[in-house]
What we know:
By secondary structure, this protein is of the alpha+beta class. It has five helices and seven strands, in the order βαααβββαβαββ. The site of coenzyme A has 17 residues, from helix 1, strand 4, helix 4 and helix 5.
Amino acid sequence: MADTSFSLASPALSVLNTLLPVARRIFTEAFSHLYEREAFAAFCQQVYACDGAMSRDFSNPEVDWKVAIANGEVVGYAKLTPLRAPAVRPAPDSLELQQIYVLADWHGSGVAQALMEWAITTARDRGAEELYLTVFDHNQRAKRFYTRHGFEEVGHCTFVLGERVDDDRIWRKRLA
Length: 176
Ligand SMILES: CC(C)(COP(=O)(O)OP(=O)(O)OC[C@H]1O[C@@H](n2cnc3c(N)ncnc32)[C@H](O)[C@@H]1OP(=O)(O)O)[C@@H](O)C(=O)NCCC(=O)NCCS
């Protein structure tokens, strides 16, 4: 039987080079079929290149990261940031679970569950009354997962990639 054990770790800066291609792979597995190839590649370059948006967040002290490791490899990660989504009247000091991304082979394995528990506990420890996230309206699996963890839809926003403008939803969990 395959070994499905994993552990969570707070990644040191040295993990970034390993994390970037895994993050790109998860994003590609989940969403590349929706987009025109060149626009998708350009977006990935902006986000996942060594000097891209993800690297900048990695050295941002306001952003907390957690990675899931199995057999010595990164299989998922989560990232907690100050609120960036355009939520209406959020509680002060709200936080956002900006990404919770797990490799497809590890869906349903408990990795996402552990990362979510880390995010909720960390947000509470940081004194946040509300935890937000955004989700593509057609991402049914993610929406089921977030519902199970007590999030509910409270608004909407858009996600632009190339020519395509997607309808994203803003979800919130009250922590107080
Ligand atoms: C979203 C994600 C973190 C959830 O983790 P997971 O391990 O897949 O989640 P789980 O298996 O614990 O739960 C998924 C739920 O969706 C349900 N589900 C599975 N496939 C589904 C489908 N095709 N349509 C609708 N629901 C589905 C499961 O039955 C489960 O429902 P339940 O909570 O009511 O039991 C993970 O799928 C992932 O990383 N996806 C790719 C990246 C992504 O989309 N991230 C979120 C961006 S907002």
